[in-house]
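Practice problem 4.
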C-alpha cells in the first residue's frame, strides 16, 4: 500500500514539474520550477531567490548523478519516482534540497515577517506556483494544525515532510497538491 501511495504522490509531482508536458523531466523543467518558486520572492530578496535556485539545481543534479537521465539528458516518470524514493527522500538529501526550498519559500511568502502564513500569503503561493486555486482553501485548513487561522513555519515544514515521507492518505501534508494522493 505504501508503495502505491508514494508512486501516486511522486507521479503527481512529476506531472507538476513537467512544465513542457512532454512526459519527460529535463534540466529546463527544473529551471522553470525554480523560476516559479523564485517569483514568489520579491526581486530584491536575493537570499531566498538564490536558495531556491540552488536547491532546484541540486535536486536535478541528484537525479542526474544517480543515473536517472537517459542519453538525451531526460528523466522519465518511473526513474523519477524510483529516485525520489531512493535518493531525494534520504534524510540528508531531503534536508538540503526539499527542506531548503520550504524554508526559503516560507521566508519569501511571509511578507510581514511575523513567522506565519496568512490565508492571503498562502493563496499567493498557490497562484504563483500554478496550483489549482480550488486546492488552496482546503489545504490551508488542513495544514493549520492548531486552528489559529495561520500556518506556522513548523506546520508548513511538517506538511512538506508528510507529502514526501508519509504514506498516510489522511496526513494533512498529502493534501498540498489536491485530494490525498491524487484520489
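Answer key:
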Amino acid at each position: 500500500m505504501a508503495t502505491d501511495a508514494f508512486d501516486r504522490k511522486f507521479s503527481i509531482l512529476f506531472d507538476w514539474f513537467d512544465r513542457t508536458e512532454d512526459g519527460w523531466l529535463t534540466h529546463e523543467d527544473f529551471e522553470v520550477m525554480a523560476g516559479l518558486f523564485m517569483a514568489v520572492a520579491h526581486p530584491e530578496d536575493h537570499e531566498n531567490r538564490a536558495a531556491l535556485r540552488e536547491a532546484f539545481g541540486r535536486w536535478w543534479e541528484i537525479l542526474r548523478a544517480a543515473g536517472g537521465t537517459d542519453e538525451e539528458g531526460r528523466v522519465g516518470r518511473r526513474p523519477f519516482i524510483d529516485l525520489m524514493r531512493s535518493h531525494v527522500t534520504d534524510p540528508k538529501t531531503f534536508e538540503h534540497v526539499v527542506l531548503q526550498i520550504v524554508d526559503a519559500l516560507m521566508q519569501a511568502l511571509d511578507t510581514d515577517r511575523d513567522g506565519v502564513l496568512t490565508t492571503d500569503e498562502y493563496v499567493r503561493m498557490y497562484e504563483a506556483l500554478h496550483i489549482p486555486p480550488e486546492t488552496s482553501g482546503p489545504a490551508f485548513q488542513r495544514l493549520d494544525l492548531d486552528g489559529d487561522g495561520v500556518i506556522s513555519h513548523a506546520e508548513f515544514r511538517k506538511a512538506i515532510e508528510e507529502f514526501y515521507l508519509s504514506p498516510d492518505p489522511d496526513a494533512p501534508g498529502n493534501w498540498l497538491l489536491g485530494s490525498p494522493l491524487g484520489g
